[in-house]
Amino acid sequence: MNDGCNYYEVLNCIPTSSFEELKRNYKSLVLQYHPDKCFTAPSEVYMQIDKAWKTLSDPELRSRYDEHLRQQAAYSSYVIYDTLSMDDMTCDPELKRYTYSCRCGGSYTIDECELQFGDTIVPCEDCSLAIVIKTLLLPSER
Ligand SMILES: [Zn+2]
């Protein structure tokens, strides 16, 4: 999904842009870059615009794409120390809390209710490292 190009940037928009704004920009870009009208711009540019529009004009694809961007942003702001599964964590059944020791001596702590489906990023309490927990199943208590 990540081809190094942000769809919002392709359409000269920002993630909070409305559907109408996206549509307007898409239309004007198509006029500019459509291969039938513009022989100087490479058709990849048009294909990018088309792909961006197809994703962002669909509410479901757009929300999935937004989630993907958020995750990327989260990843880039942390130094990922390790990727773990739930089984690697120490579970406190009473508190429904999972912990893991960081190499700095601090610890990663997450409550069961904070776990997200897919990847959950847990920052260390004492340093700038973070771990990624792969969550395959939603916590049962949700
Ligand atoms: Zn640490």
UniProtKB/TrEMBL annotation:
SMART domains per the UniProt record, alphabetical: DnaJ
Iron as UniProt keyword: yes
InterPro entries (UniProt xref): DnaJ_domain, DPH_MB_dom, DPH_MB_sf, J_dom_sf
Keyword flag Metal-binding: yes
Segments forming domain J: 6-69
Homology family: Belongs to the DPH4 family.
GO molecular function: ATPase activator activity; ferrous iron binding
Keywords assigned by UniProt, alphabetized: Iron, Metal-binding, Zinc
Residue stretches making up the DPH-type MB domain: 80-136
Protein's name according to its UniProt entry: Uncharacterized protein
Top-level taxonomy: Eukaryota, Metazoa, Ecdysozoa, Arthropoda, Hexapoda
